[in-house]
Amino acid sequence: MECIVLAGGLGTRLQGVIGQQPKCMAPVNDLPFLSYLFRFIDRTPITRVVLSLGFQSHIVTRWLEDQFLKFELDYVVENEPLGTGGGILAAIEECETDNVVVLNGDTMFMPDLRKMMKFHVDNKSATTLALKEMHQFDRYGVVNINAENKITSFEEKKFQETGNINGGVYIINRDEFMKKPLRQKFSFEKDYLEAFVGEGNFYGFASDAYFIDIGIPQDYEKAQTDFKTLFV
Q1: Do 173 and 126 touch, CB atoms closer than 8 A?
Q2: Phi, psi at residue 153, to the nearest 5°?
Q3: Are strands 72-77 and 48-53 parallel, antiparallel or unpaired?
Q4: Structural domains of the chain sorted by starting position, each given as residue range(s) with its CATH number in brackets
Q5: Structure pTM?
């Protein structure tokens, strides 16, 4: 199983806390957030990771020199920001398997990837999203699915009593993705998921696994406490 980790984010909302470094390198209990993503990956069937790097990529690559990893690691570096879609496209060209896992470098969501891959393959899905049920929230949009778990639509961010959100973990069929008329620079969410959802070949895989997005200072601080017991 191959995996892309999107690790080129600027961390704009966290710069007052972490300074000028990639968001994936934000320290959590004195270790970069990326190191915890790698620990999660170690618990999965993933054997190869392609990092998609951008902003201050040298900080990440320098840190990687001292890491001893259980999986094969490669990386691609954006010379200019390509958006989430462009980052995936550049990295997926370096992958070899038919279906590739994608993780966000600033989100810890831990679905069972073995079960998710089986679900993805069994449904012949073009792209499968791991969904997390949330309650009383306005920070995320909602992903709507039908009785067959096909994604039918996406809703913009607004207050919701309950709903499934996009947890930032995907499984993408390479051929289906790369045959789309995509630009080099684009948003995966807007220009791929929302643009092609009408074709009826995107699926949602619901998971009640642990989830946190460190994109805002409050949740970044929460991760400092949570990870002490989540990763022991």
Answers
A1: yes
A2: -170, 165
A3: parallel
A4: 2-230 (3.90.550.10)
A5: 0.94
| Torsion sign across C-alpha atoms 162, 167, 173, 178 | positive
Q: What is the full per-residue pLDDT of the chain (232 aa) written as tens digits?
A: 999 999 987 656 666 666 678 889 999 999 999 999 999 999 999 999 999 998 889 999 999 999 989 999 999 999 888 999 999 999 999 999 999 999 999 999 999 999 999 999 999 999 999 999 999 999 999 999 999 999 999 999 999 999 999 999 999 999 999 999 998 899 999 999 999 999 999 999 999 999 999 988 899 999 999 999 999 8
Q: How far apart are CA 231 and CA 221, in angstroms?
A: 16
Distance CA 98, CA 187 (A): 22
How many residues make up the chain in this entry?
A: 232
